[in-house]
Amino acid sequence: MRTILIFATLFLVTQVSFAQTQEYIITKKNDTIKCKIKETMISLKMMYKTDKMEDYAPMVLDSIYEYRYRKHKGPDTRRVLPGDSTATLVEWQIRGALNLYGYFVFRGNFNSYYAYYVAKGNGPLFEIKANEIGGRKQRMENFYNAITDAPEVLAQFKAADDYSQDKIRETIIAYNKYKEEHP
User: Fold this and answer.
1) 64 shares a domain with 139
2) pTM, entire model
3) C-alpha 28: how far from its chain's center?
4) Neighbours of 182 (CB within 10 A)
5) Domain that holds residue 37
6) Do 52 and 79 fall into the same domain?
7) pLDDT tens digits for 15-67?
8) Radius of gyration (Cα) for the chain, nearest Å?
9) Can you tell me the distance from the alpha carbon of 115 to that of 125, in angstroms, rounded to the nearest whole number?
10) Among candidates 59, 102, 96, 97, which has minimal Cα distance to 79?
11) End of a domain among 71, 105, 132?
């Protein structure tokens, strides 16, 4: 009996875990396509396959508003990066009153970096962290400005004196919880 209970629990956990990482594509026409997604190693293209398709087909990124790939921390969605005029697919890592996004900025072989952005709701994105030399003071100021309307969260963040990715994530989660409790 105990063995059956253990297997049943493992089965349920596996099913819930799988359901939470379901892959999909949402087109700009607002059509949702449930599918499997993979990256090709040689061309670095994203490919998808529905249950009705025999082979994987390339994703036409210009026609996609959002997609969920199981290897990413969150869905990729279209947002306009600071300094750009057109929307780009960025990784939506935390949702809430304050959203966290990540994006690999490609500027050639030796000048590429991963950057993190925040936005309140659908507002503009502000760069808050990057593994690029320079601009740290402005990024920190952007983050402070984003959480200034939650004084307790801001004070805790400043007191920690830690500007790591983990601390930023923890602070954004705390900010979102604070905004739920203090609308």
Assistant:
1) no
2) 0.73
3) 19
4) 9
5) 23-71
6) no
7) 443 444 589 888 889 899 999 988 887 766 788 999 999 999 988 878 888 88
8) 19
9) 11
10) 102
11) 71
